[in-house]
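DM from R.C. (forwarded with permission)

"hey, sorry to bug you on a friday — could you get me a structure for this? deadline for the figure draft is monday and I only need the backbone to look sensible"
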Amino acid sequence: MTDLQGKRALVTGGGSGAGATIATVLAEAGAVVTICGRREQPLQAVAAQHLNIDYRLCDISVEAEVIELFDDMGTVDIAIANAGTAVSKPFERTTMADWQAMIGTNLTGVFLTWREARKRMPEDWGRLISIASTAGLKGYAYTAAYSAAKHGVVGLARAVAKDVANTGITANALCPSFLDTPMTDASIVKISAVTGMDRASARQELSKHNPQNRLITAEEVAAAVLWICAETSSGINGQALPIAGGEL
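My reply, with the result:
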């Protein structure tokens, strides 16, 4: 098991889904973890589950809030840019508000999180990790804005990796396919409403993207995070790692 005793970690979007699971796994490995998000109640619930977890309110698309968050934290060893949001629409019906929301949270949020973490990260060891998506490696119908943002996250990881290559810091993106999380549940509700398909059938349609015919679990993503945080993973840098059952 990866030993993260003495490490300070941040997980954005840590109040639910993969973020909550990642925070718990890091805390169980010994890290002191701060989770952040925009809704206090879910953050409180996750923080209450482990003594090594605390929380802060923060909109990670707002520069001033992210800077204040990191100023309060001080040194950061592990920064997990997990917060994300999704909208599903035909390209021609995608509004400017849709576009800005997808870029703001899914790309700008990663940029701000990583930038401020990098400023406060020890030169000898650090991990910058983003939870991207297979949508950052391929295209899906009705996800133009979301896919564009996630492609940006993958590009950011590859570029930052070069900037930090002469340090003990690494930068990587994890790219799961559809996750078994509340965000996917919300997508299933929308698919059902638009198509008239029952929710079980809509869920199965999403599962078909994965050759294993299933959704990826939050635990699988958390396990990949823990692996990247291991000392023996120091050579993993600038990668966009699919967690997708062979889809890519």
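R.C.: lifesaver. Residues 158 and 214 are 29 Å apart (CA to CA).
me: no worries. The beta strands are 8-12, 32-37, 53-57, 78-81, 126-131, 169-176, 240-243.
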